[in-house]
TrEMBL record:
It comes from Acetilactobacillus jinshanensis. The lineage of its organism: Bacteria, Bacillati, Bacillota, Bacilli, Lactobacillales. Signal peptide: none annotated. This is DUF805 domain-containing protein. The chain crosses the membrane at residues 39-60, 80-101, 113-134, 140-161. The keyword Transmembrane applies. InterPro entries: DUF805 (IPR008523). Keywords: Membrane, Transmembrane, Transmembrane helix. It holds the Pfam family DUF805. The keyword Transmembrane helix applies. It comes from the Bacteria. GO terms for cellular component: membrane.
Length: 166
């Protein structure tokens, strides 16, 4: 399986800014592949953006943020809930806006490893089922699946192609 790399340099790496651009410009590209650097640079971007939302939440709610985390049932300020709603709403918009591009990037990363698209579909379906379940067993399964996916994402290009294609 010889999939075209999205990285136009043809090299096995890309810069952090280029990875950000590729994430958004190839938001629905499920056919090509992505390099490890493209994938991990985006993960760093995602971490930075989520930390910004955490900082925004703390800035809007002040020191009561920690009180809410410790004793959510004892804090009942309407202003505080509005502030949490604003921060949470913005974070939710971000998560929904980046949902398809994140899945597309994962599929392209799995393509780069030589895995078929159904592997990513199974992982996504499992995540959705587990998200809506209330089972500690399923949460344990999700943790194991996440570790396996993490290990796959660390592997170099075409590392699994010899096992998945004849």
């Amino acid at each position: 399986m010889n999939l075209k790399k999205v990285n136009p340099t043809g090299q096995g790496w890309c810069s952090m800014t280029h990875a950000f651009k590729l994430f958004w410009t190839h938001y629905a590209d499920f056919t090509h592949s992505s390099t490890r650097s493209e994938y991990w640079w985006w993960q760093l971007w995602n971490l930075i953006i989520n930390l910004c939302f955490l900082i925004l939440t703390i800035a809007l709610t002040g020191s009561t943020f920690l009180k809410v985390i410790e004793h959510a049932d004892t804090v009942s300020s309407p202003k505080l809930f509005i502030r949490f709603g604003i921060a949470g709403g913005l974070w939710l918009i971000w998560r929904l806006a980046s949902l398809l591009p994140r899945w597309s990037l994962e599929v392209r990363r799995f393509n780069d490893l030589g895995l078929p698209i159904w592997v990513s579909i199974v992982l996504l379906a499992a995540s959705i089922v587990i998200w809506f379940s209330n089972s500690s067993f399923l949460e344990s399964v999700a943790f194991i699946v996440d570790i396996v996916a993490f290990i796959f994402e660390l592997l170099p290009s075409n590392a699994l192609a010899k096992f998945t294609h004849k």
